[in-house]
Amino acid sequence: QARAGIISTVEVLKVMEAFVNEPNYTVWSDLSCNLGILATLLSHTDFYEEIQVFVRDVFSPIGERLGWDPKPGEGHLDALLRGLVLGKLGKAGHKATLEEARRRFKDHVEGKHILSADLRSPVYVTVLKHGDSSTLDTMLKLHKQADMQEEKNRIERVLGAISQPELIQKVLTFALSEEVRPQDTVSVIGGVAGGSKQGRKAAWKFVRDNWEELYNRYQGGFLISRLIKV
């Protein structure tokens, strides 16, 4: 109804606040998706910082309850929920989540304590979102060293979280390099487009500037339509 302009988005936000004690992954996934769309729209207004505060307020109680480490008797959905919530809090700049993500990332890179598969994406996205050129370089090194394609893809999907314009360009250039399989290039560009307002503008310009190469690469297949969609 809010998307159709029938009710105010404020009403939706009030309803969302009522879900702070919700335990179900599917519900949180839906809330996260809708808040993501809203944050994208608000990134073009003065309300962007306020929606980040709202995200932190809504997601921090469930984040504190879940913590960082699996509890005995947890199911698969709990692990998914933890990854979703920590990633959301990290991206929104929740201080405690950011500090813990940085600590765990450092241990992971140094080989002291390897991150579990379900915590890697939220940690990567958090440190990149609030990171600098050395964070990006470390991530690209992890990509190069990764034995499994699954890990390479995981890193490719989150590289677009980086915020600085010159680093966004570096990620886009990387997308077309030989380091990335042609079928995975779209994921990298899509990650940039979804990462920030600056990323969207840069990705759109990059696609236009490199259109011939991209079009020849995908020859009107489903990947070219996916690229346009993102």
TrEMBL record:
Transmembrane segments: none annotated. InterPro entries: ERAP1-like_C_dom, Peptidase_M1_aminopeptidases. It comes from the Eukaryota. Belongs to the peptidase M1 family. One of its GO terms (molecular function) is zinc ion binding. One of its GO terms (cellular component) is extracellular space. This is PSA aminopeptidase. Gene3D superfamilies: 1.25.50.20. Keywords: Aminopeptidase, Hydrolase, Protease. GO terms for biological process: peptide catabolic process; proteolysis. Residues 2-229 form the ERAP1-like C-terminal domain. Pfam families: ERAP1_C.
